[in-house]
Amino acid sequence: MSAGTLSTFEQSLRRLDVDSTRTTPEAFEETLASVTLDPVVGAPLPFDGSSLPDWIRTRPTPRELREAKTGVTAAELAVADYGSVVIRATPDATEQVSLFPDVHVAVVRAEDVVAGMPEAFERLAEWTAAGDSAVVATGPSATADMGALVKGAHGPKAVHVVVLE
Amino acid sequence: MSSTREEKAARIRHFLATEGDAVAEGTRGFNAGRYESVQNLDEYEELKDRARAIKEDAIERLPELVEQLRESVEANGGHLYVADDADDANRYIRDVAENREAETLVKSKSMTTEELEVNDELQGAGIDVVETDLGEWVLQLADEAPSHIVAPAIHKSREGIAELFEATFNPEESLETAEELTMFAREKLGERIAEADVGMTGANFIAADSGTLMLVTSEGNARKSVVVPDTHVAVAGVEKIVPSVTDFQPFAELIGRSGTGQDITSYISLFTPPTDSPTVDFEMPDTPMADGEVDREFHLVLVDNGRMAMREDEQLKETLYCIRCSACANSCGNFQSVGGHVFGGETYSGGIATGWEAGIEGLDTAAEFNDLCTGCSRCVNACPVKIDIPWINTVVRDRINRGESGKLDFLVEGLTPDAEPGGLDLGKRFFGNFSTIAKLGSATAPVSNWVAGTRPARRLLAKTVGIDPRRELPQFRRQTFRAWFEARGGSKVPAARARREAVVYPDLYTNHVHVERGKAAVNTLEALGVHVVVPDAPSSGRAPLSQGMVSTAERHAHDVYAALAEHIDADRDVVVVEPSDLAMFRREYEKFLAPKSFERLDMHSYEVMEYVYGLLYAGAESTLLTGADTPGYDESDTGVAYHSHCQQRTLGLESYTVAVLEDLGYDVVTSETECCGMAGSFGYKSEYYELSMDVGEPIREQFEAGDVAERTVVASGTSCLEQLDALLSRPTQHPVELVALR
């Protein structure tokens, strides 16, 4: 990933009205505190050397999922051209945590941002070949079915991307 | 008007009034979004080529891919069932639901399940079926059918939905804004998803190599429907299979842009079921989800229902490449005005629906709306898999004309000059044989015009062939364009001193009706040093083709080529004034002529303003034409409002006219409308007159607005000129008439 790819990614996110924050492993917890609304649920991060702070409830119950305002998950891949984050489904309920609460905070490692869809689908083909499922998520959920564009249909109303450098 | 025509007109009038405004706003918004979105995609054309190649290959190898997919799905622990028809699919799905003792089944949007009418089957078995896509849910509550393949409730206004919710739920607080309506629906549906036993989805694409489904959504309801309950049933047409997950990529980049005009939709899910996500059991609210036993069940139901037969049908086969993006609906003038409840069959709507409905339901269903495709071709470049949608409509029209029985009426057959069967509708035959009528009309003009214009004659025309009495009829000219050219002694520029030699093709309308634009074309080319020839060449076959008279059109193609081939050999360029005829040479003739012949005519034919552009580019003096800078030209009159022709735009030729006019100092505003709505004979037919005028309405609004209202109106196509004459109170002309020396 080049520096250009990361700034393209951030530009795409701005176009989507998605906020993003660059952070470091040291400032990670503080950053998360500033972009989450309580109650917060999370799915464990599959990143070496970084994990979610204790105040984020991982292994949530259905009740906690329903009551959470924010869900924090990893996005193991991101696509600069589109501002998309790719969330892999895991037994830790990553899919649910990214989907049910009003705000989804996606944690992306800078080195996992690829330039475009061809690179992303090369990676996705490896995941699916191993039997995995994933979602390429671009901005919040949305619908225009009620006569005007509304952000927040069945899924999150807002997305915040935290880039871990 | 005959009673069927009257009924059809009344039906169209009803939908224009009740659903037209909502559909127009939605589809035109999607269409404008598409233009903007694809413009920002550098690899747009390459991606379309790849998407097309992937689909061609996949449909070619379909039986093999089905077997590969079966192995993949079963290796993952799922089940694959290939259903022969709707009954077969419905029976299987009901069995799955009953085996899981399902009480509630939640669905995400799927046109294929609409095709099956699976909701009826499941409800008959006592299962509560809930549509969770907000648009589909609205329709389920209202008991209405989708009017658009992507935005099913596009015909519903916000006010209409608010009333529906009030009437159905009587909510404590009244619902008004789109936001309030959406949040209300989210909450109601969230409860239904929480208690669901089975989730049913469609699939936009399926990878044979891994068994992965790609679902293109925005709301998140498909994700919830899959992840919450333990049983997932995916239903898809068998044509949705592609070889591998990497093949998804061009479609992921094209489908949202082509459909709703979004670069990408919110969610592109790649499910490789059964998924690793735990189920969400809201009845055990305090047990961590990750602790639950994951015992998921997955069924993929691939639906044939006529598709494998379509694969064997050389003409309908292309329909199977369709990715159901809705670009052909959104870019269609008629669809924008009436929506899918008029321009649609049992399930599918828009341009490509003719192929789907003919293949799945049969010709009778396709016949109900096939006329709504005017062949304007605005969908052709919009289609991300490059399906020749007008051609599919033409072929199906031809089959409808011939009737399924194939019986011929030999008496009528002998009396008409076409190569069509006797069952053909009289109106279609009249418009299809317009060349014969035009010749007769010119030969007997002006008497023919007087007679045709009299009230008894108009009544007869209305009654027999269905020409709407509100339309002005074309005025045939006694002296045809060719006769004029011969009378003036041929070209004024001797071949020996000429910069180029060119044939001005005497198309039917230029030759018999709009003779002035033919004269202007000759004068313009000669002013730029071209030796002109106007040969005796037959009409292009556009008129019969538009009526679905394919074999008659083909005969014209061979005759036209025979008449022009020697001119091409003599190094003469073929210049065409009428864009719909040029489109025949450049597009449809590929179906009729030998490949080399098609290529030769295609390579050597030009739209007249394209040709003028080329001459100016090659160094001809623009001062030899009438421009805004020409001495004596009224400076206050340099503003031009230009409506290009639909097929001309599809060929990418609009820009040449604009460039020439601007080069000559004119200030040009171009129309923003895809098609004027006249579309050859379409707007003359009494059942379609009001629709045709409605389609043209945006041009009237644009051309009568503030700074455009005073501009000189020019248009390239014959029917566009006729339509603009009906819509506007100021005169119209072809652009070549504006620039010709006066």
TrEMBL record, chain A:
InterPro entries: FTHF_cligase-like_sf (IPR024185), LUD_dom (IPR003741), NagB/RpiA_transferase-like (IPR037171)
Superkingdom: Archaea
Residue span, LUD domain: 63-164
Gene3D superfamilies hit by this protein: NagB/RpiA/CoA transferase-like (3.40.50.10420)
Coiled coil residues, start to end: none
SUPFAM superfamilies: NagB/RpiA/CoA transferase-like
Pfam families: LUD_dom
Name the UniProt record assigns to this protein: LUD domain-containing protein
Originating organism: Haloprofundus marisrubri
TrEMBL record, chain B:
Molecular function via GO: 4 iron, 4 sulfur cluster binding; oxidoreductase activity
Keyword Repeat on entry: yes
Gene3D superfamilies: Alpha-helical ferredoxin (1.10.1060.10), NagB/RpiA/CoA transferase-like (3.40.50.10420)
Keyword Metal-binding listed: yes
Identification of the protein by name: (4Fe-4S)-binding protein
A single GO BP: lactate metabolic process
Bilayer-spanning residue ranges: none
Domain 4Fe-4S ferredoxin-type: 365-392
Organism field: Haloprofundus marisrubri
Alphabetical list of PROSITE patterns matching this protein: 4FE4S_FER_1, 4FE4S_FER_2
Keywords: 4Fe-4S, Electron transport, Iron, Iron-sulfur, Metal-binding, Repeat, Transport
